[in-house]
Design a protein that fits this description.
The structure is a homodimer. By secondary structure, chain A is of the alpha/beta class. Chain A has a single domain, classed as TIM Barrel (Alpha-Beta Barrel). In chain A, about 45% of the residues lie in helices and about 15% in strands. The first copy, chain A, has twelve helices and ten strands. Chain A has an eight-stranded parallel sheet. In chain A, strands 6-7 form a two-stranded antiparallel ribbon. In chain A, strand 3, helix 4 and strand 4 form a beta-alpha-beta unit. In chain A, helix 2 runs parallel beside helix 3. Chain A starts with 11 loop residues before the first strand and ends with a helix. In chain A, about 55% of the residues are buried. The model of chain A has no long low-confidence stretch (mean pLDDT about 95). The interface between A and B is large, with 55 and 54 residues. Chains A, B: Keywords: Lyase, Metal-binding.
């Protein structure tokens, strides 16, 4: 028997639904729906909502309305809420800046094969491409968040060395990223491998500047978040309704659902400032828009209980 | 940062699919399918398979073929595999014994309201009803496993006091149960509340005689198993394909899926003796029999990856 380590008193959740959640949807979602999704997430208490991506519409047609969506979201921005957008290169950054972005995100992979197959360059080359973005962002007073993908495993290489993750994370921090989000892109991590990865990363980057971005492909995300909390990580990325499948296994789940994370944190007595019931309403609403059931266990259980209320 | 406590080197999984998994299925499943399910589970490496329940077919029609199923399973029993059956009273025990049972299970709730609403008697009265069962079992050389339900929460009372769980668990042990399975019947537990419950129980019952039986209603089961492993629990109940919904919230998930548990344990380097690929095949097969998709994330991800193999 052991005494559990103290957990953070509060956690910040960075909502991925409008961007990571929707980007692989085949059917185009209207800008109206995307803006409405952001508005409903704000109302549920989310304070950081990744809103869109400034990538080529040739590669990601779903994000083709990025300037319109960001512009409309920012036109009625809620004070205290951040609306980061993904900007993989200088062209994307300039478009985001023109649309009013105050925060952007860049990403690097911890796996050479993943980097080469996905963005056709080495890890080192990809990081060098971000340098002009981070420099331009600093000049413009725009905050930059950094993602590291494949922190636990890679679809091409299998397990990824914790040291490789630490190296990319440290480089992104040195370039000026205020926070490094560690992405288990294919969801292959477990509480032990995530803890080993975090130990290596924390030798280079303080826990206070780290976020966990765990996919629930194999149902491990909640356990991985709990393990990360025990190591002092206090920021987690999540996607309402579990939006966003796994691009490497169609039919499998993607981002951990925001409501599953909030349920865990409520149970652990860790504050989030998010209203779980309102969040489940958002999950039900966006899932209905996409004509499917919410992927999250919490949304399904809460909605089923509501449907039965009165018959107990 | 903390060093993780040592985990057990190996875990025993008690498969619940044929009993807890199927008992709430509305459409009757044939005895042939039930026996075939047990055979496929044995072939995947399961060493303990709860096979059926000796309860009144008036209350649980799905288990009406209990004697036939157990008889056929035992007629070709695999050496080293246990086939426990649920026997809530002496009448059920005698029928199970007549059908050849070598192991039975009894259950008590840790919540007074749950006990009264479900079996129409107090906790103390329900435990007294099991005394003749455990005495008859001892006389017949039959092993008895004890379940405690509602160890983290109750649908009527909310949170359940760890001390109440410890009391029921200790009573079942004193009656002669060789193992006490702690059931989070409504899945409302989280790693912190499960740890508090286990701490209280372990003051009365040694960890080596405890099992975790966690439902995944709110997606917490894998995290709860990880927390329990860290406290020395080395036996877990699970249901292939996540069979078995939550009777208190139709549409919500029930038992944690066996393949999710095996995936976690494989990742943690904890032995189970179970072949994960073969287990996913069983999940796919029984789900097809029931005309649905497997509920488990691991089964869905593995099956999706298999379907894509060749297109990478």
């Amino acid at each position: 028997m052991t005494t559990s380590p103290a957990l953070p008193a509060a956690v910040r959740i960075v909502e991925m639904g409008p961007r990571d959640g929707l980007q692989n949807e085949k059917r185009l979602v209207s800008a109206d729906t995307k803006v409405e999704l952001v508005r409903r997430l704000e109302a549920a208490g989310l304070k950081a909502i990744e809103t869109t991506a400034f990538v080529s519409p040739k590669w990601v047609p779903q994000m083709g309305d990025n300037a319109e969506v960001l512009g409309r979201v920012l036109a009625a921005a809620v004070p205290g809420v951040a609306y980061p957008v993904l900007t993989p290169n200088l062209k994307g950054f300039e478009a985001a800046l023109a649309a009013g972005a105050k925060e952007v995100a860049v990403f690097g992979a911890a796996s050479e094969s993943f980097s080469r197959k996905n963005i056709n360059c080495s890890i080192a080359e990809s990081l060098e491409r971000f340098r002009p973005v981070t420099e331009a962002a600093r000049a413009a007073g725009v905050r930059v968040r950094g993602y590291v993908s494949c922190v636990a495993g890679c679809p091409y290489e299998g397990a990824v060395a914790p040291q490789a993750v630490a190296e990319v994370a440290a480089t992104l921090m040195d370039m000026g990223c205020y926070e490094i989000s560690l992405g288990d892109t294919i969801g292959s991590g477990n509480p032990a491998s995530i803890a080993r990865m975090l130990e290596a990363v924390m030798r280079r980057v303080p826990a206070a500047r780290l976020a966990g971005h765990y996919h629930d492909t194999y149902g491990m995300a909640v356990a991985n978040i709990h393990a990360s909390l025990q190591m002092g990580v206090a920021v987690f990325d999540a996607s309402v309704g579990g939006l966003g499948g796994c691009p490497y296994a169609a039919g499998a789940s993607g981002n951990v659902a925001t409501e599953d994370v909030v349920w865990l944190l409520n149970g652990l007595g860790v504050g989030t400032g998010i209203d779980l019931d309102a969040l489940v309403d958002v999950a039900a609403w966006i899932s209905a828009q996409l004509e499917r059931e919410p992927a999250s266990r919490v949304a399904r259980a809460v909605l089923a209980k509501r449907a039965q209320a009165g018959c107990a």
